[in-house]
Design a protein that fits this description.
The structure holds two protein chains of two kinds. Chain A is built from six helices and ten strands, in the order E-E-E-H-E-E-H-E-H-H-H-E-H-E-E-E. Chain A is of the alpha/beta class. Chain A has one domain: P-loop containing nucleotide triphosphate hydrolases (Rossmann fold, 3-Layer(aba) Sandwich). In chain A, helix 3 packs across helix 4. The longest helix of chain A is centred in the last third of the chain and has 18 residues, at 178-195. Chain A starts with 5 loop residues before the first strand and ends with a strand. Chain B is an alpha+beta fold. Chain B has helices at residues 2-10, 13-48, 72-79, 178-188, 210-220, 229-235, 239-271, 273-281, 286-318, 330-349, 352-357, and strands at residues 54-58, 86-98, 107-115, 130-134, 147-150, 155-163, 172-177, 201-205, 224-228. Chain B has a six-stranded mixed beta barrel. In chain B, strand 5 and strand 6 form a beta hairpin. In chain B, helix 1 (2-10) crosses helix 9 (286-318), helix 7 crosses helix 10 and helix 9 packs antiparallel against helix 10 (330-349). The chains are: A alpha/beta, B alpha+beta. Chain A binds chain B through residues 48-49, 52-53, 56, 58-59, 79, 82-83, 85-87, 90-91, 93-95, 97, 99-102, 106, 110-111, 113-115, 158, 162, 168, 170, and chain B through 2-3, 6-7, 10-11, 274-275, 278-285, 288, 360-361, 363-366.
Chain lengths: 226, 366
């Protein structure tokens, strides 16, 4: 049996607010298979972002164990987490957040510049990804010259540049209309499945859960399967 | 770093304000530095032209040529000292000179020097009644072959050659033999007449370094003291004061550049907080982001310095010679650029804490 993309066991995240403590994630246990797409659904403030941040090595858990692609990251410091993020995970953010002064191709290559610096293999990979995402003719366009859907596709390409074990999508359709949102979700599903890459899609829109293999609900930091 | 440079190239408008302000500051820095250098050249050229190791003044002179008196006995004692190879007399008198073709009240300020030993760029003394004139006097209309009438006694001196960068106390030098200088002195400054064989100062060379020569001279004779040329330059009245005043102004200007850079990049960092959060989330290290800021600050400063250098050189060419003591030199421009680059690095460093505090978690949930 292959190593799961994500194994979170009994993870807690507690924030100190003065004298009070806020439990953002409470004994969360979640396993995501190698090519599984999991929808993480919950209302605002339920802990979706915290769970994603911990799975993506942006935040450290207060308690519990986190293993991504076989790499235990629970005890990592800032430097190790940065290296981990460069190599093991991809992110697609809610408001796209492309670098405004880089064209589509350069926005993909920025992952290589910040991390492994492979040079030509990275450039070839960026061209291949843009081609697959239907953006080959938009490679030289700046984000301001792209539509919302095209920007989101560039962001998806960026998240796949480092050949990640796990891609975290933070409400990837929230800024798109219904039709475009469905197209993007279809694209996400086909890209993840064709690569055998796992994904967690954070959403509070039940309509997009049909593109995922499984839905996990989170309320007040507590996970519960559908 | 590539990211930072691409932003500079693709979004130059974002950096225009800072570049313009820094250009103006760089112009000010280079212009003020040029004025300081020009003033110092006007005050110190005659001493900088000395190839000797030391200058000897009499004890009560306070390093002023006009107050100093070196008697023949003193000179003999110094000449015979161990560690002294060559000794020459030196004297100066500051006067106004009438230039042929100029109005009777349009006097050129001259420093009439009497000397024995050749200097750097100044050959052996000319014949009696003749002088090598500093090129500075060309701005007063002096030409080769002119007979200048020096001082109230109108002592004639004929210009037979040119020397450069030998000004003293703001006056262009007229370099004569000791006899001509003594004659000019006695005719125009009866209060300062010196007997034959008496000079105002001595220039001394030796086999050792200047400090050894100074020590040898001081050990050989009482009633006089020796200074290295560098020390003698600093003892010229006003030189240290001018340098200190201008250097303080230059220092404040560099601090202003630092503050401008610090504020500009602090604002830029605040504006980019969301972008930095995203970059950190996808694997950028704080040092990479901060390095990009330093690269941008350095590049903006280099562009501003290059434009400023061109402007100051053009300004120097446009200003009529002799109107203001501006001296633009490559070394002053390089020094200004280095100071501004240091200010750029320190200024951008004020954004380091803000960069470190950008939380990659801020990229999620927004």
């Amino acid at each position: 049996m292959s190593t799961p993309a994500l194994q979170m066991s009994d993870v807690r995240k507690i924030y100190s607010m003065g004298d009070n403590e806020v439990v953002a994630l409470d004994h969360a246990t979640l396993t995501v298979g190698t090519d599984e797409i999991v929808a993480l659904v919950g209302p605002s403030g339920s802990g979706k972002t915290t769970l994603c941040s911990i799975a993506g090595g942006i935040l450290s858990a207060t308690e519990g164990s986190v293993v991504v692609g076989g790499e235990a990251i629970s005890d990592y410091g800032d430097k190790e987490l940065t290296t981990f993020r460069q190599n093991k995970v991809g992110f697609v953010f809610q408001s796209v957040n492309l670098v405004p002064f880089l064209n589509a191709r350069e926005n993909l290559l920025v992952v290589d510049e910040l991390g492994r610096r492979q040079g030509k293999p990275a450039r070839d990979r960026a061209d291949r990804l843009l081609d697959e995402l239907g953006l080959a003719d938009r490679a030289k366009n700046l984000p301001s010259q792209l539509s919302g859907g095209q920007k989101q596709r560039v962001a998806i390409g960026r998240s796949l540049m480092n050949e990640p074990e796990l891609v975290l999508f933070d409400e990837p359709t929230s800024s798109l209309d219904t039709e475009l949102g469905q197209q993007v979700m279809e694209l996400i599903r086909s890209e993840m499945k064709s690569r055998g890459t796992a994904a967690i899609v954070v959403t509070h829109d039940d309509r997009i859960t049909e593109y995922c293999d499984r839905t996990v609900r989170i309320t007040d930091g507590v996970l519960g399967d559908d | 770093m590539k990211l930072a440079l691409r932003e500079l190239v693709r979004k130059p408008g974002r950096f225009v304000t800072a570049t313009v302000i820094l250009t103006l500051i760089a112009v000010l820095l280079m212009f003020l530095g040029g004025l300081l250098d020009g003033l110092l050249r006007l005050s110190t050229g005659a001493l900088r032209a000395q190839t000797a190791d030391a200058i000897v003044y009499s004890d009560a002179s306070q390093s002023s040529f006009l107050r100093s008196r070196i008697e023949p006995d003193d000179r003999a004692a110094i000449e015979s000292a161990d560690g002294v190879d060559e000794v020459g007399g030196l004297g100066v008198v500051l006067l106004g000179a009438r230039v042929p073709g100029n109005g009777p009240r349009d006097l050129a300020n001259v420093a009439v020097w009497g000397y024995e030993l050749p200097k750097s760029g100044i050959p052996a003394p000319p014949a009696p009644g003749e002088a090598y004139a500093d090129e500075l006097l060309q701005a007063d209309g002096v030409e080769l072959g002119d007979e200048l009438l020096v001082g109230p006694a109108r002592t004639p001196i004929t210009v037979t050659g040119w020397v450069s960068d030998t000004a003293y106390n703001g006056s262009g030098g007229l370099w004569t033999d000791l006899g001509t200088w003594r004659e000019v002195l006695s005719q125009n400054r009866p209060d300062a007449v010196l007997a034959d064989g008496v000079v105002q100062a001595l220039v001394v060379s030796g086999p050792g370094d200047p400090a050894d020569v100074v020590a040898a001279v001081d050990a050989a004779n009482d009633g006089t003291y020796a200074l290295t040329i560098d020390d003698a330059i600093n003892e010229i009245p006003g030189v240290e004061e001018q340098s200190a005043t201008f250097n303080q102004i230059l220092g404040v200007t560099v601090v202003i550049a630092l503050v401008v850079i610090a504020l500009f990049f602090a604002l830029l960092t605040v504006e980019r907080t969301a972008l930095y959060g995203v970059l950190k989330a996808i694997g950028a290290r704080s040092r990479t982001i901060f390095g990009g800021l330093v690269v941008q600050a350095t590049a903006v400063t280099l562009v501003a310095s290059a434009v400023a250098a061109v402007l100051v050189v053009v300004l120097d060419l446009l200003i009529p010679p002799g109107s203001i003591p501006l001296f633009v030199s490559p070394s002053r421009i390089v020094l200004s650029v280095v100071l501004l680059l240091i200010a750029a690095v320190i200024g951008s460093a004020f954004s380091l804490r803000r960069v470190l505090r950008v939380d990659p978690a801020s990229a999620l949930g927004n």
